[in-house]
């Protein structure tokens, strides 16, 4: 039967190596169930078995689509799941045709249950919770008290759960003590030794060994004298080796990676120079050899003598022909996984220091910003004209008459009158002394010479003779706009010359209704559609202003808490609350004290221990601002937006305190993350 409420299942896997999908690298698998809203219930008022139609009370046709799953309950014969083919409004009721046969039209007809959330709604809800799901996964994976062992899936694996007791994941590796049983079954000596027992001390020959969950049972050839389960059972294995001083490593020509772990003790005896006990720092397989790096220094290169290791276990049960004990490899597997999680996710005790003086406002005025909703408005009575830069070579210039001359007729594009839509300005470039902006005083065209003469309001500094003409004259050419798209950020015109517009060029709209779209825009691309041209804009010039850091003047605040100047001699210290020792309140107090002692006496520190989610947002916005602020040629629109984003997240940062767990002091073996009076903050998870 369909679940009520409907659910979305988020499945996940974790691998030991980044970007790996190899089965050998898979560590855990799991899933998290997200519940949707309860199904809505409506009465079924009639059934047509021939047409496979259910008619229900009320119009819900717009809430159903082909493929939706429905459930019928409390009917005489029709209780089951159905798939929607179609749903139609029939005089205020809904006729629903289903894919499956309907057994009966006998009463009671029952109730119909349907989802009020679509599949897309559930998927969106799941995506919104992904970060929190992953955080709960790695956070709980660091707490040994959240782990337990189960053979429910068929093999003996570890699982861990969240604060509500819901399982989060299960290990891929299983039957952890089997390698130990195999090791004992394959001992070179073939012997185990019992010590500390009242009656069973001595060596015994191994017949076989097997693992069952946490227990390892060794079958022996001899008969044990006593049925009392006491003392310890153990064994010792010896190997040839090669020790290297340079990298502090010991190599053994066989695979010991399943027999030894980090922290285990190995012993070298009978050597010339390296006798002693060594603690394993790391162990890895190199081809068919095992390379062991140790914590203690190796005095010199050596390969004489023997390397040995011993293992002992507390005896739990005996029979005349067997010994049973806890292997402990399952607990080691859990610890290794916890160490892996801590090393990957919780071992970066870094922090950020943001000096507030660097966040002072710098930008105010009109600058280009990214286009967005509302940049262009469709459907205006007057769409206006699009103006773009047109450049022509200068023919000549006269400083006595203040005129420039160019080839071609520009009278349709330039005008001295400010009441027309024509341009009244020209820009001269590439001439040196005459470069600059000029206002048109009057303009005339000589059809005989095909030349336009432009007289300017401003004086022209030097003559340019036609025989040695150089430089350019530019002006804004206008063309009528035929269409505007707010969704595509596009402007459509009919002017082939717009194809000369390049990405990054600036165009201007003038004359739109109420000046709604009037302004300057930066072009992304221009596309020709045989007679019409579509100009896609990427940015718009608009009034912007940097945000200010908040000023705290609340009357209910103490004098020391009021901040009238949030910039001078103030810095924010942003610290990840979950990393390493940072989740320990005692260490936090120590660290905060050290920060304040090491900071200059005149600098006030705002220290904030923030969540993983907030750190992700803060670091993205902080880095984006650092990059923009460091540019030699600044884009002030982007710089202002990045600063405003950074100030926004700084104002939303909130301290996160270590989560606590309530324990029964008499029953629980650990007090990990215990709630301690005056050291924990109570609140909602």
Q: Give the overall pLDDT as a whole number.
A: 91
Number of helices: 7
Number of strands: 36
* Fraction of residues in β-strands: 35-45%
Evaluate the radius of gyration: 40 Å
Low-confidence stretches: none
Largest sheet: 11 strands, antiparallel
**End-to-end span in angstroms?**
32 Å
Which bin fits the share of residues in helices? Answer: 10-25%
Protein structure class: mainly beta
Shape: extended
Q: Which helices and strands appear, and what pairs or packs with what?
A:
Layout: E1 7-15, E2 26-35, E3 40-48, E4 53-56, E5 69-73, E6 80-90, E7 93-98, E8 111-114, H1 119-128, H2 130-140, E9 147-150, E10 157-161, E11 167-171, H3 178-185, E12 191-195, E13 202-212, E14 215-220, E15 232-239, E16 242-244, E17 249-252, E18 265-269, E19 276-286, E20 289-294, E21 306-319, E22 322-326, H4 329-345, E23 352-355, E24 364-370, E25 385-398, E26 403-407, E27 425-429, E28 436-446, E29 451-456, E30 472-485, E31 490-493, E32 506-510, E33 519-528, E34 533-545, E35 570-576, H5 585-598, E36 604-610, H6 612-630, H7 636-652
Parallel strand pairs: 35-36
Antiparallel strand pairs: 1-2, 2-11, 3-4, 3-8, 4-7, 5-6, 5-8, 6-7, 9-10, 10-11, 12-13, 12-15, 13-14, 14-22, 15-21, 16-17, 17-20, 18-19, 18-21, 19-20, 21-22, 23-35, 24-34, 25-26, 25-30, 25-32, 26-29, 27-28, 27-30, 28-29, 30-31, 31-34, 32-33, 33-34
Helix pairs in contact: 6-7
């Amino acid at each position: 039967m369909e679940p009520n409420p409907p659910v979305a299942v988020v499945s996940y896997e974790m691998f030991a190596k980044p970007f790996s999908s190899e089965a050998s690298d898979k560590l855990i698998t799991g899933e998290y169930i997200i519940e949707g809203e309860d199904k809505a219930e409506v009465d079924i008022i009639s059934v047509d078995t021939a047409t496979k139609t259910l008619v229900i009370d009320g119009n819900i046709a717009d809430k159903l689509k082909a493929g939706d799953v429905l459930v019928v309950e409390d009917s005489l014969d029709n209780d089951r799941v159905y798939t929607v083919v179609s749903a139609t409004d029939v005089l205020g009721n809904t006729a629903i045709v289903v894919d499956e046969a309907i057994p009966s039209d006998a009463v009671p007809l029952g109730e119909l249950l349907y989802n009020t959330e679509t599949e897309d709604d559930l998927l969106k809800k799941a995506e919104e919770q992904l970060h929190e799901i992953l955080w709960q996964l790695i956070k709980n994976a660091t707490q040994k008290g959240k782990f337990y062992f189960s053979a429910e899936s068929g093999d003996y694996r570890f699982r861990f759960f969240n604060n509500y007791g819901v399982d989060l994941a299960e290990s891929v590796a299983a039957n952890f003590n089997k390698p130990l049983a195999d090791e004992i079954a394959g001992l070179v000596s073939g012997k185990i030794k019992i010590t500390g027992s009242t009656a069973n001390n001595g060596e015994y020959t191994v017949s076989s060994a097997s693992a069952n969950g946490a227990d390892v049972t060794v079958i022996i050839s001899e008969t044990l004298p006593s049925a009392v389960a006491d003392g310890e059972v153990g064994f010792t294995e010896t190997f040839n080796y090669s020790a290297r001083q340079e990298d502090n490593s010991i190599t053994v020509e066989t695979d010991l990676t399943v027999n030894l772990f980090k922290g285990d003790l190995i012993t070298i005896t009978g050597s010339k120079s390296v006798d002693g006990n060594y603690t394993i720092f790391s162990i890895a397989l190199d081809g068919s050899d095992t390379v062991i790096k140790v914590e203690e220094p190796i005095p010199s290169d050596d390969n004489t003598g023997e390397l040995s290791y011993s293992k002992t276990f507390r005896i739990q049960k005996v029979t005349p022909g067997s010994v049973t004990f806890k292997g402990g490899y399952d607990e080691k597997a859990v610890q290794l996984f916890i160490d892996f999680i801590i090393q990957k996710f919780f071992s970066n005790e870094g922090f950020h220091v943001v000096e507030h003086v660097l966040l002072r406002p710098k930008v105010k005025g009109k600058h280009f910003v990214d286009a967005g909703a509302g940049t262009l408005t469709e459907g205006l009575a007057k769409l206006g004209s699009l103006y773009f830069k047109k450049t022509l070579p200068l023919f000549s210039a006269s400083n006595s008459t203040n005129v420039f001359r160019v080839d071609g007729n520009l009278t349709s594009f330039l005008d001295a009158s400010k009441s027309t839509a024509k341009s009244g300005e020209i820009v001269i470039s590439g001439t040196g002394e005459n470069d600059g902006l000029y206002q048109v005083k009057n303009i005339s065209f000589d059809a005989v010479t095909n030349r336009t003469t432009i007289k300017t309001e401003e004086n022209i500094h030097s003559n340019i003779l036609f025989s040695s003409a150089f430089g350019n004259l530019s002006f804004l050419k206008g063309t009528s706009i035929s269409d505007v798209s707010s969704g595509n950020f596009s402007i459509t015109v009919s002017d082939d010359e717009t194809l000369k517009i390049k990405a990054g060029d600036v165009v201007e709209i003038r004359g739109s209704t109420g000046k709604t779209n009037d302004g300057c825009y930066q072009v992304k691309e221009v596309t020709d559609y045989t007679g019409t041209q579509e100009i896609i804009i990427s940015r718009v010039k608009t009034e912007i202003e940097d945000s200010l850091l908040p000023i705290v003047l609340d009357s209910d605040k103490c004098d020391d808490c009021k901040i009238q100047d949030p910039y001078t001699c103030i810095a924010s210290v942003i610290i990840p609350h979950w990393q390493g020792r940072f989740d320990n309140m005692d260490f936090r107090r120590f660290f905060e004290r050290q920060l304040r002692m090491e900071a200059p006496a005149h600098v006030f520190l705002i220290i904030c221990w923030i969540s993983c989610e907030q750190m992700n947002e803060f670091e993205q916005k902080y880095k984006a601002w650092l990059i923009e602020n460091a540019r030699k040629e600044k884009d002030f629109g982007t710089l202002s937006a990045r600063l405003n984003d950074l100030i926004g997240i700084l104002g939303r940062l909130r301290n996160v305190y270590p989560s606590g767990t309530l324990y029964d002091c008499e029953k629980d073996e650990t007090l990990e993350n215990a709630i301690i009076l005056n050291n924990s903050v109570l609140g909602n998870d």
